[in-house]
């Protein structure tokens, strides 16, 4: 990763393997919950429009915003109520590999703008390149909190470790337990209220991006065992 002096944002270089349309970095700290206005076919891509509380004047064409963890490039923006309507073109691969292909008008979406120089890194480094789709197996609520159990795609399970980080629908979360391809996280009341997680239930599908450090560590181990 490196700083881009022209934009004042941190940019990742060399990452491959996930689905996302930008190279900007995020932290997994959701800053707004948007709502899908439109998801319509447009040739070989879909036009996605999201209503957001972000001021329209603050968003540039070409900017990158994480939508439920998937980094998308802004192709249009206009005022909408007190905020903005943000348009993206979503390619076929992104629609197939993420949950975006299931979105319909009215769906609520976690949003995060790209990290800028001087911003607090409150979560962990997230590329916005979704690795796959995880399924919620169980939700248990207590004391205002929620305990979730997920099943990860089998190829990603080796990158998920206890006390490690994982981005789920664009939210940086800490892994509490792992059992094969199943893992558990705990969400506090603030996260449930400030994101879409308050409405999530068993059977729902969410975007998952594994921790980049875990990916690098696994790669080093694989390289060492191959010698």
What does this structure look like?
The chain has 227 residues and is mainly beta. The chain folds into 2 domains: 2-113, Beta Barrel (Elongation Factor Tu (Ef-tu), domain 3), CATH 2.40.30.20; 132-225, Elongation Factor Tu (Ef-tu), domain 3 (Beta Barrel), CATH 2.40.30.20. 11% of the residues lie in helices and 43% in strands. The chain is built from 3 helices and 14 strands. It has helices at 92-97, 189-194, 212-225, and strands at residues 2-4, 9-11, 32-42, 45-52, 64-67, 70-80, 83-91, 108-113, 132-142, 145-151, 165-168, 171-179, 182-187, 205-210. Strands 3-4-7-6-5-8 form a 6-stranded antiparallel barrel. The protein has a 6-stranded antiparallel barrel with strand order 9-10-13-12-11-14. It has a two-stranded antiparallel ribbon with strand order 1-2. Strand 6 (70-80) and strand 7 form a beta hairpin. The relative contact order is 0.18. Residues 1-18 have low confidence and may be disordered.
Average pLDDT value?
87
Helix content: 10-25%
Strand order within the widest beta sheet: 3-4-7-6-5-8
Order of helices and strands: EEEEEEEHEEEEEEHEH
CATH class of the largest domain: Mainly Beta
Largest sheet: 6 strands, antiparallel, barrel
- Name given to the CATH architecture of the largest domain: Beta Barrel
Percent strand: 35-45%
Supply the helix-strand structural class: mainly beta
Number of domains: 2
Secondary structure tally, helices: 3
Shape assignment: globular
Nearest-angstrom radius of gyration? 17 Å
The fold-level CATH name of the largest domain is Elongation Factor Tu (Ef-tu), domain 3
Secondary structure tally: strands = 14
Report the end-to-end length measured between terminal Cα atoms. Answer: 28 Å
Which consecutive residue ranges, at least 5 long each, have pLDDT under 50? 1-18
């Amino acid at each position: 990763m490196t700083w881009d002096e022209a934009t004042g944002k941190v940019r990742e270089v060399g990452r491959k393997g996930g689905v996302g349309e930008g190279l900007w970095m995020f932290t997994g700290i959701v800053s707004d919950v948007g709502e899908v206005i439109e998801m319509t076919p447009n040739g070989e891509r879909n036009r996605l429009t999201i209503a957001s509380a972000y001021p329209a004047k603050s968003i540039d064409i070409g900017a990158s915003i994480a939508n439920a963890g998937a980094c998308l490039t802004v192709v249009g923006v206009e005022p909408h109520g007190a905020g903005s309507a943000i348009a993206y073109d979503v390619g076929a691969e992104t629609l197939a590999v993420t949950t975006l292909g299931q979105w319909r008008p009215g769906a609520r979406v976690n949003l995060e703008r790209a990290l800028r120089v001087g911003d607090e890194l409150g979560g962990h480094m997230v590329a916005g390149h979704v690795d796959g789709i995880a399924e919620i197996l169980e939700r248990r609520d207590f004391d205002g909190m929620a305990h979730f159990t997920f099943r990860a795609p089998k190829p990603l399970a080796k990158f998920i470790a206890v006390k490690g980080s994982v981005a789920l629908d664009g939210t940086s979360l800490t892994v509490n337990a792992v059992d094969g391809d199943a893992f558990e996280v705990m969400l506090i009341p603030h996260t449930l209220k400030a994101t879409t997680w308050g409405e999530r239930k068993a059977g729902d599908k969410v975007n998952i991006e594994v921790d980049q450090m875990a990916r690098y560590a696994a790669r080093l181990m694989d390289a060492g065992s191959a010698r």
